[in-house]
Each structure stands twice: as structure tokens, then as C-alpha cells.
Specification:
By secondary structure, the protein is an alpha+beta fold. Among the domains are: 3-110, Sandwich (Immunoglobulin-like); 281-338, no CATH class; 582-677, Golgi alpha-mannosidase II (Immunoglobulin-like), CATH 2.60.40. It is 21% helix and 24% strand. The protein contains 14 helices and 33 strands. The strands form 7 sheets. Strands 25, 26, 27, 28, 29, 30, 31, 32 and 33 form a 9-stranded antiparallel sheet that branches. Strands 22-21-20-19-16-11-24-23 form an 8-stranded parallel sheet. Helix 6 (384-401) links the parallel strand 20 (371-374) and strand 21. Helix 5 (349-361) packs parallel to helix 6 (384-401), helix 7 runs antiparallel to helix 8 and helix 12 runs parallel beside helix 13. The longest helix is centred in the middle third of the chain and has 20 residues, at 249-268.
């Protein structure tokens, strides 16, 4: 039996409709080699075997189908194929002689992900470090006190972040983003994912102070008066300028309006906007707690739970019995951090309803955001049972407010229980993208905390890891998974190419840019834009920015000192991705993998794209079995991208397929993209 010919997946060509509703009949298709199989069955369990009928054939393949009517429950299945005495099974992992329940295909009736999110090109922005468009809203020196020191405005945009960076502000804001929308559109960005932008005392803003308003330091200041703190004063109830800036409704409402206008302008340019939702915990500055006494004497703000035991927000937090009011410090902090009070959902229906109201507000008019990225989403609540209950309600609320909004969660590890169709749409794709790609190309763990030399160039390990981890996704979730090389929590990928283990505190800032390998970086980018999912660029990666793990990875965008070759390369890769239906939502197959070699295909019936990568320092000769994509056994392919040590080229070059195989010689550190068939255009 020709096992390499056996294929099916969850894409629209092998499952019709791809995202069925309850009660809808689904046509499921299986491909085998021409005249190779005696029988084919779709199986749901050991005793449930449905005969599949051959309904068409071409020169290479036979196609079998059956129809299944969807109930309310998820439907898991695999295939059995018999040829003479030989029986094999096809599941998400591949073809096997064994039945593997953990790798079954799965359909969840009623579950779908937004079409725009499938294969969308995303761009992540940490606002303080992207662009300063309004110097009037910059954080002032000594404006307030946070954690152990007064806040500080960094006057030198190019200065490296310090080891303790949380209180240092460079002045990036939403007006700066607005001014750069033309740049983002020019490189092909389709979605902006903002790190948190709500009122918050830190530069990263994962310690929310007010979920109802955009931080005026990112937005607009209408009323701006009052003194900053004296040098030796750490009491934020004296921080008059800060209190005016973040509590005055004129500032807050003007900032919200500026954000609404920004989203509208982005939409006009064809760019969607995703917000960061930090709902597991808030910050000690939060108006519901008010540990810093920012709101204590401000009209229109009820007493915070730190201030008074009679606060309407008291049950928003878990207070320990040994505490007392006023000024009760005995509350539960996330991982013990008193600056990050854990939200007590199980103890407060009002809190649940409030956060759900927030979730709906920002994806509704006048803001019209296009979805949420959920911070540490698996940690929310005090039990797994409640966590799933809440995210189920969250999904219902968001989808009711904006059916086209995406719900994308931060998660490490297997997310299957949240991706069952009732909670999240998808996740930040660490297991099935960032980590395997990082280890294959660099051997570096994503924080640069560890180097695994055996992993570098191990194509088989890469393939097995990807097969296993990708099988945890239903296809609609896989196609919009956030595929990043870098982000605000991990070292920048270009830095990982230097194999330096450690962080800025041990190695120094300069080391992040030493001995980097742009050729390896470009190969990884090429994989990023040809892999299933939503390729997501961390701001300034495309400009050649470097950095160890946070806070060093939060360096500013190097305006005026960009690496234009890398920007051009990203622009061209984005163009290839955006103009290819195969790369956005097509099927996926590994072709050949080995030492310093990975190759794979993305394909539809009309378009076949082949990718081959040599991550080593020597030539590799390979003959790829491209017949498996459905292209003719004898035809030509267009090489539409090649990247190599000295640069890259998009000059089309014809490559011949003979006998179903494509022979290539890959020079050192070279990756190629080839296409047969027609691209779809914008």
C-alpha cells in the first residue's frame, strides 16, 4: 500500500462544510493512491465503522467520501484503509498500523473561528516602545511611586532598557501608532495586537488600574495640573498630577475617543485591532482596591476594598482573616505579588458581570475592536471547573456583542480542554510553533536560558514535535493560532541566533546583538509565513531589533536606524503569504526532514506551495515527493522566494518536477518557496 498517498485533514477540501452547525450533514473525504485501496472506512470508535464510497479519481489518486449528520456533541474520528492483507489507520499525526485515540480528527458542531483571522498577518505592539506621537502625555519624572522607586521618563529613545525597567517610560503612545499606520499597511499588516492599553502604573500595563478607560498617558490629556511627588515622598495620595491625569473623566473620555478614532482609521486601512485582556488579576492601583489611595478623595469613585470593609468591591478580592480595615493589606496576590491582586470571581457575581461587561464593551461600538488576547487565561479563578465556566460565558458574551471577534488566549502546554469549541478560538502558539522553530534553528530555549546543541538542525525531531503538538488543535483553531518568533515575554529571535545563554543582567545589553545570524533569522521568518496559522511579528523584529528576555526584549523601535533589508524581506514574505490561499488555509504535509533539513507543502486543489530549508553550513541535495500535493508528476514550479547567506531574491525561477519529484540543491543557510498553480491575489 502506498502510505504516502493516504491523506485527509480538516480543511475545506476534505471536510464540507469545514465548520458545520448542529444538525448539519458533513461530507468527509479521504484520499488514497489510484487503485490502491480495497476498502476505506471512517471510524468513530472500535464498533462504529462507516463505509466510504469512491466518488472520483484522477491520474494519481482515488477519493472516498461519506456523510455524517452532526449532533450536539463533538465528533471524533479516524480512517481505516485496507489493501489486500494490509490495514493502516490515518489520524491527525499521520498513517500508522496502530489506533491512536489521542490523535483523532475532531469536529465541534457550532464552533467556528472568524474567517479574517485564519492566516491573518498580525503585528504586536508594546505601545510605550513603538512611537511617541504626543509628547504632552508623557509620564513625568517623579509623577508617582511604583514598587520601589519613582517613575522616570527616558529622554533618550535609543537607550537600552535597564534591568529594573517597569517604572521607566519612553513615551510611546496611541498617537504614535496612528502616525505609523501607513507604515504598517505598507508592509502588509492585517491585524494590530496591542499589549495592554488600559489605565495602569507600569510601562507594560499588565497591572490594570481601570478596565473602563484607555490610559491618558497613551491617549489624550485635556486637564493636566498638580504637583509631582517630592524626591523623598513615596505616598501616592500626594501624587496630585498623576491623580488628575488618571481620574479626571475629561482625560479618560478623551483618551477613549482617541482610541475609537484610531480603530476606525485602522479599519479604513484594512487593519483590525485586538486588545490584551488581563482578567486573572488587576493591579494594586486598581480603583476597586485603591491600595495607593489614588481614588480615595476623588468625587464619583466609591471607596476601594483596601480603604474600607464596606466597599462595594470588597468581594472582588479575597481578604485573609488576619487583616483589618481601614487600609487592609491582607489580600490574595497572584503568585504572592501584592502589586497584582488576584480577582476573586467565585466570591463575586458582580465581578463576573463587570468583567463580562468590559469584554463586550470594547468589541462593540464605538470602539469596535476585533477581539481579545487573554493574559494567563488558564490561571483565572480558583478552580479548573470555574475557569471553564467563566470562559464559556466570556465566549457567549463576546460573540453575542461581535460575532466576528476572535478570542485568543495565552497558554503554555496542551490547550485541548479550552479549545473544545465552547471557550477560546485559539492560543498563542508556543508548543506547535515558537519552541520547535527556535530549537531547530538556534537550539535556544525561548528565554535564552538554555542551549540544546542536539536540537539544532534536527529535522526529524522538529517534524515529530510539530506533528504531535499540531494534533492538539482542531483545524479552525490551528489556522488562526498566533505564530510568533519573539514577543514581550521572551528573547528576540535574532538574539537567539547567537547562542548566548543568559539574560541582560549577566551578559550586558551589547551582547544581545553580537554574533547574530540574519540568514538563520530570515529562514525562520520564511517558515513563519508559510506555516499554518496567523504569522505574528513582534514590533521591530522586522527592523532587526535584538534583545534578551524581558525587559531587554522591550527595546524601542529603531526609527531612522532600521535594517531595511529585513523590512523588505518581511514585506515580500507577507505579500507571498497574503496572496496565497494555500498558505492561509490550505492543507499541510511534511515532505522530507533530516539533518539541517525540513521541507513541507501547503496546498489546495488549485495551488501547491513547497518549502525547503537548509539550516546548515553545507550543501544539501534533496528530491522532494511533491506528487503528494496533487500537482502533475511532470510539470514546472516557480521558485518565488529564496533566502541565503548573502541576501534574498524574489526573481522567479523555473524548477522542473520529473516523475513526481522536485530535485533541489540547497546551498548553506538557504530556504526556498516554490509554487505551482494560481495565487488568489488580495
Amino acid at each position: 500500500m502506498n502510505r504516502e498517498a493516504i491523506f485527509s485533514d480538516g480543511t475545506a477540501e476534505y471536510r464540507i462544510p469545514m465548520e458545520p452547525e448542529t444538525g448539519e450533514t458533513v461530507r468527509i473525504i479521504l484520499r488514497t493512491a489510484r487503485d490502491d485501496a480495497d476498502y476505506a472506512w471512517l471510524r468513530a470508535d472500535e464498533d462504529d465503522r462507516v463505509v466510504m464510497r469512491k466518488f472520483r479519481a484522477d491520474e494519481q489518486f482515488d477519493y472516498y467520501q461519506t456523510e455524517i449528520r452532526m449532533g450536539e456533541a463533538s465528533f471524533a474520528y479516524y480512517f481505516e484503509v485496507k489493501s489486500g492483507p494490509e490495514i493502516v489507520y490515518l489520524d491527525r499525526f499521520g498513517v500508522s498500523e496502530d489506533i491512536r485515540p489521542q490523535y483523532r480528527f475532531c469536529i465541534c458542531p457550532g464552533f467556528s473561528t472568524p474567517e479574517w483571522a485564519k492566516g491573518a498577518v498580525m503585528y504586536q505592539i508594546l505601545v510605550d516602545r513603538f512611537a511617541n506621537g504626543d509628547k504632552e502625555n508623557d509620564v513625568l519624572n517623579d509623577e508617582y511611586h511604583y514598587i520601589s522607586r519613582h517613575v522616570h521618563h527616558v529622554d533618550d529613545w535609543e537607550r537600552y532598557p535597564q534591568e529594573f525597567d517597569v517604572t521607566e517610560f519612553y513615551g510611546g503612545d496611541l498617537e504614535g501608532v496612528r502616525q505609523k499606520l501607513g507604515y504598517l499597511k505598507s508592509i502588509g499588516v492585517e491585524v494590530i495586537y496591542f499589549n495592554p492599553i488600559f489605565v495602569s502604573p507600569s510601562n507594560h500595563k499588565y497591572d490594570t488600574q481601570d478596565y473602563d478607560f484607555i490610559d491618558p498617558h497613551y491617549g489624550k490629556l485635556v486637564r493636566d495640573e498638580g504637583a509631582v511627588l517630592a524626591e523623598d515622598d513615596a505616598d501616592n495620595s500626594h501624587a496630585a498630577r498623576y491623580i488628575r491625569r488618571v481620574t479626571d473623566k475629561a482625560n479618560l473620555e478623551a483618551s477613549n475617543q482617541l482610541f475609537a478614532d484610531l480603530v476606525a482609521e485602522a479599519h479604513q486601512k484594512g487593519i483590525r485591532v485586538i486588545l490584551d485582556g488581563v482578567f486573572n488579576h488587576c493591579g494594586s492601583f486598581n480603583k476597586w482596591l485603591d491600595r495607593e489611595r489614588i481614588y480615595e478623595n476623588e468625587p464619583g469613585y466609591p471607596a476601594g476594598a483596601f480603604i474600607s470593609g464596606d466597599s462595594p468591591y470588597r468581594d472582588f478580592f479575597h481578604f485573609y482573616p488576619d487583616g483589618s480595615w481601614p487600609y487592609n493589606t491582607a489580600y490574595d496576590g497572584w503568585w504572592g505579588h501584592d502589586t497584582l491582586p488576584k480577582l476573586n470571581y467565585e466570591g463575586s457575581q458582580k465581578l463576573q458581570d463587570y468583567i463580562l461587561q468590559v469584554a463586550a464593551k470594547w468589541v462593540s461600538p464605538p470602539y469596535n475592536c476585533d477581539g481579545w488576547r487573554l493574559d494567563v487565561a488558564a490561571d483565572l479563578g480558583h478552580s479548573e471547573e470555574f475557569n471553564h465556566h467563566f470562559w464559556n460565558r466570556f465566549r457567549e458574551t463576546v460573540k453575542r456583542a461581535n460575532p466576528d471577534a476572535v478570542i485568543l488566549a495565552e497558554h503554555y502546554g496542551d490547550a485541548r480542554s479550552w479549545l473544545s469549541g465552547h471557550e477560546w478560538d485559539t492560543i498563542m502558539n508556543y508548543d506547535a510553533f515558537m519552541e520547535p522553530v527556535s530549537f531547530f534553528f538556534t537550539g535556544m530555549e525561548k528565554h535564552s536560558d538554555r542551549y540544546e546543541g542536539d536540537a539544532v538542525g534536527d529535522g526529524k525531531r522538529f517534524e515529530m514535535t510539530m506533528r504531535h503538538c499540531m494534533s492538539a488543535f482542531m483545524t479552525p483553531s490551528l489556522h488562526c493560532a498566533m505564530n510568533e518568533l519573539s514577543n514581550h515575554d521572551h528573547s528576540r529571535f535574532l538574539t537567539r541566533t547567537n547562542h548566548k545563554v543568559g539574560r541582560v543582567g549577566q551578559l550586558g545589553s551589547e551582547a544581545a546583538g553580537e554574533d547574530v545570524n540574519p540568514a538563520i533569522f530570515k529562514e525562520a521568518v520564511l517558515v513563519q509565513f508559510t506555516w499554518p496559522g496567523a504569522p505574528t511579528v513582534y514590533y521591530a523584529d522586522e527592523a532587526g531589533q535584538v534583545g534578551f528576555t524581558d525587559p531587554d526584549n522591550r527595546r524601542t523601535y529603531p526609527w531612522g536606524k532600521e535594517n531595511h533589508d529585513l523590512i523588505d524581506f518581511h514585506r515580500d514574505m507577507i505579500f507571498l503569504h497574503r496572496t496565497s490561499k494555500a498558505l492561509r488555509t490550505g492543507s499541510f504535509l511534511f515532505l522530507e526532514t533530516g539533518r539541517n533539513l525540513i521541507s513541507y507543502a501547503r496546498f489546495t486543489a488549485q495551488e501547491q506551495v513547497v518549502v525547503a530549508v537548509n539550516s546548515g553550513g553545507y550543501n544539501i541535495d534533496v528530491a522532494l515527493p511533491v506528487w503528494r500535493t496533487g500537482m502533475p508528476n511532470n510539470c514546472s514550479m516557480d521558485q518565488i522566494m529564496v533566502t541565503y547567506e548573502q541576501g534574498y531574491s524574489i526573481m522567479p525561477v523555473k524548477r522542473q518536477v520529473e516523475g513526481g519529484r522536485l530535485a533541489l540543491t540547497l546551498a548553506p543557510y538557504t530556504a526556498v518557496v516554490l509554487r505551482h498553480g494560481n495565487a488568489i491575489g488580495f
